[in-house]
Amino acid sequence: MTIQFRPASECFYDVVSLGEVMLRLDPGEGRVRTARQFQVWEGGGEYNVARGLRRCFGLRTAIVTALCDNDIGRLLEDLMLQGGVDLEFVRWVPFDGVGRQARNGLNFTERGFGIRGAVGVSDRGYSAASMLAPGDVDWEHLFGTLGVRCLHTGGIFAALSPCTAALAEEAMRAARAHGTRVSYDLNYRPSLWKAAGGRPAAQEVNRRLAPLIDIMLGNEEDFTACLGFEVPGAGLDTGALDTDGFRTMIGDVTAAHESIAVVATTLRAVHSATVNDWGAVAWSAHDGFVEATARPRLEILDRVGGGDSFASGLLYGLLELGDLQAAVEYGAAHGALAMTTPGDTSTAGLEDVRRLVESPSARIQR
Prior knowledge:
Elements: E1 13-18, E2 22-26, E3 39-43, H1 45-55, E4 61-69, H2 71-83, E5 90-94, E6 106-110, E7 119-123, H3 139-146, E8 148-154, H4 155-159, H5 162-177, E9 181-185, H6 190-193, H7 198-209, E10 215-218, H8 220-227, H9 244-256, E11 262-272, E12 275-284, E13 288-291, E14 295-299, H10 306-321, H11 324-338, H12 350-358
Parallel strand pairs: 1-4, 1-8, 2-6, 4-5, 8-9, 9-10, 10-11
Antiparallel strand pairs: 2-3, 6-7, 11-12, 12-13, 12-14
């Protein structure tokens, strides 16, 4: 067994995510600056993982977050209800009529095409979720009374404010006290740290949280920006997905943080916004290094959420299959499928993912 979780029979939830949920405004094939209409989706790094685990993989998930109680918040609620994630732990904050005290975050995101890369412009200052603080959530009830197999959170939520970083730490400590595994996606976003101290501040927060993590996720930039670990050979145009540098880096990470049982990272070589090489590698103390099937020159419609869908597929594999090789394959396949459809979250089903893992073909299914 790669990593032991609490038995499902003892827990009300398989995975609970802690993070912000924003309203994504998508101009489709156009650009934000010239758009006249937008498609709306719900999205957020930590939430996307819970939604993928519920809708694609059928696990029992919930989200811990906060929303401002106005029509935008209720629109987000309606979208999340479609996703099937339990909303029992959504904290509703009164709306003051303007948003001076609290508001709901917005995320304007272009998909990109060819030589034009994807662009994200967030508008999330003073959001209800960014004001969540220690003492706002009854972790004893959640982890002790109800029971949770895995808590998932990450660097996006920890970056929102000093109080969200403190809440993430409180949640992680409470989870570990009850035998709940902690999954954490480093998810470095320069825009979130720009006015809060930049990389040094990100490293201070994430290094403090690292000893509380069982399953660490990230990509090349995440490990460097959040923890200060360099990936040897990073940035070299080798024309292929080179895993050697990641193996060295993962060895450094796990040597520094002995509590970490699993490390996983996506691998991406960008040829254009719509053509990427895609793969993944993972490590566990039990299995050593494993690598997912590489997908060179993967065609992409919307790359946002590919990493989150990788994370949900990986967690499904660890929770339900108990095998690291299967987990990284399911994660990479789910992430690839998520990038073929618009929106932050996957529209794939378990059979879609299983089919891609077992027989990677785009032939029509009749």
